[in-house]
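ERR on first pass: missing label on line 2. Operator R.T. fixed the label and resubmitted. Corrected input:
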Amino acid sequence: MESENPNVKKFQKEMMSGIAALVLLSVLDQSDTPLYGYQITRNLEKENQKIQLMKLGALYPVLRSLEKSGLLSSQVEPSFSGPPRRYYAITAEGHAMLQEWQAIWQQTSLFVNSILEGK
Amino acid sequence: MESENPNVKKFQKEMMSGIAALVLLSVLDQSDTPLYGYQITRNLEKENQKIQLMKLGALYPVLRSLEKSGLLSSQVEPSFSGPPRRYYAITAEGHAMLQEWQAIWQQTSLFVNSILEGK
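pass 2 clean. output:
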């Protein structure tokens, strides 16, 4: 779902930039092995066939920022089919942070829904 | 819920900046009369007694930005008990935009929940 309206775009961009870190940490937390960018996007698309909420290009800055914060670690591995790939894995700190972020997400989404419903 | 951890703070701030516009438009859409800043915060606190997700100071830049985009209009009225107050009301354009934003919110929160549940 892509809107042409600049107000909607701004809203969508801001909301997604906050949520992206949560979503990426969660995908890596659920994976048994480290994943590289394209694999992560594929995992996201499985959940989300019609809406491409996260483009691959938007993914990398978030991954780098999460690694800089110590929540992810990464390692470059050679590939048979192209350039080397950077594989990301969640750290113990990232796992602990994810629990906290999930709690914030639950509270926030309940809050937003209660406002939208105008109870 | 205020965290001391800078990673959590960053996440919370980004997520809320995107959601703030949605929440404010929705509160004004549900009000029969224009509201000033403090009344809006009071309405938010009713829903949300323990968590103060939106501080009054964080509210004003969002209100101004929504007005600049034509989604809100405002008018200054004198007050008996203090300085004049700026009352905000939603515009027809804001009402239409809110419908679109609500749909995006529903899709996004479903998406995030499906990722967190790891279905």
